[in-house]
Amino acid sequence: MKKRRTFIFACTGSDCKSNGGKAFAEAIKETINEKPFRGKFKLVKTKCMDCCKSGPVVVIKNELIKKGDLEQLVKELAQE
Ligand code: FES
C-alpha cells in the first residue's frame, strides 16, 4: 500500500490564535513546503482541541506539540 502524507493538525481556535497560532501555522506551512519535507505532510486547520492554555498547539502522529514549539515539530518531521 502506498504511503500517504502525514497529517499535521493545527488549532485555529480563538485562544491559540491570540497566542500566535496563525503565525505558527504559516511557519509550519513554509517548513513543510521546503526540502526535505515537501510532499510528505499535509497541514489541517482544526477548531479548539481543548488544550488552550498550552496554545498554540499542533498534533502530529498523536503527539501534542505545545506553545508553538517549531523546533520540536521539526524534530518530529525529521523522524518521518
Ligand atoms: S483554542 Fe487551541 S486548543 Fe483551544
Describe this structure in words.
- The protein has 80 residues and is an alpha+beta fold.
- It has one domain (6-78): Glutaredoxin.
- It has helices at 14-18, 21-32, 70-78, and strands at 6-11, 41-46, 58-60, 63-65.
- A four-stranded mixed β-sheet has the order 2-1-3-4, with helices on one face.
- Strand 3 (58-60) and strand 4 (63-65) form a beta hairpin.
- The chain is globular and about 35 Å long.
- Bound molecules: FE2/S2 (inorganic) cluster.
- Residues 11, 13-16, 48-52, 55, 57 line the site of FE2/S2 (inorganic) cluster (FES).
- FE2/S2 (inorganic) cluster binds next to helix 1.
Question: Which terms would index this structure?
Answer:
binds FE2/S2 (inorganic) cluster, 4 strands, alpha+beta, 3 helices, four-stranded mixed beta sheet, Glutaredoxin
Task: Give the structure's gist in a few sentences.
With 80 residues, this protein is an alpha+beta fold.
